[in-house]
Amino acid sequence: MDSQTSTEQSQDRPESSDKQVFEIFIQPGFSDLELSAFTSVLRTANEVLNRDRFTWQITSDVPGLVNSSAELIARANPAIGDQYLKDCLIVIAGRNSSPQGWMVRLRAMQKVRRRVVLLSDAAREFVRASKDQEGRAAAHWRDVSLLREVGTFPMLSEQLVVDSGGVMTCAGHGHTLEAVIGILSETLGARECAEIASLLVLDNVRSFSQEQPKGTSYNPNFFEKRLQKALRLMETNIEQPLKLAGLAEEVGLSSRHLERLFMVYFETTPAKLYKKIRLKQAHKLVTDTHMALIEIAIACGFSSAASFSQAYKAEFGETPTQLRRKKR
Hints:
The chain is of the alpha/beta class. 45% of the residues lie in helices and 14% in strands. Strands 3-4-2-1-5-6-10-9 form an 8-stranded mixed β-sheet, sandwiched between helices. A two-stranded parallel sheet has the order 7-8. The protein starts with 19 loop residues before the first strand and ends with a helix. The relative contact order is 0.09. Mean pLDDT is 88; it is low at 2-16.
């Protein structure tokens, strides 16, 4: 990926120009989807306007060639403390990277009252760091459930985007295209935004206040309604798993019919898929938190640390203890 650069500006924004310069701050393991979505919308906006109104510079606290989570590479300039601020700061953090580097720039942007946009992983880390402050914040639904497992975050929202005090926290990922169009709508007209969406083949740009989908079961295009409901019940009953008979009764089917549907659509039984869903949630807690393993076992519906460890190894090839030792 290439970065479009512009002449370094002073801390004071020139009043005579409507041009906007974005700093896109990335870290190792960043989402290439989010980076390409952001730059694609800005480039498309310039095409619609027939001029380079929006420019950007990619920076990092580890400048040079930075690998994404998919091993794609972006070239980043150094981000120097609180210097050389742009009109808007976009943060695409790495899943396991420290937020310290971009937090300095975020605070500096707040002091001069300029926009900050935090996508998915960055939004999660901001929520962790700001839990005692006033104001609401959003994060990707995967991280919303994880954050609620490890602490109390009264300000946490399940909206797609929350704008609080100039800091915009976003679900990111596939919603990034829509989020950027929403940001540009503050300075562009409705016709221009509609044309940008059309060129990007987006027939519906969701508003910031809409709720996020919360898992596999919330997409109506892939499963029939009874399977959708069964999956939703599994995803929302992790700590106290439902029995097969209770699950079947909730969706209006016999246990045998439900098992048949699962074999046809998923090539597995409800019990095996349910365990996979719970282990997936457990894996996030093992890798992204410092919760005790017995607490993770209970939170994910396992009766003991031993049964959890056995199931985890069967699924991921090593025990949770072995995985954590490797990460030290």
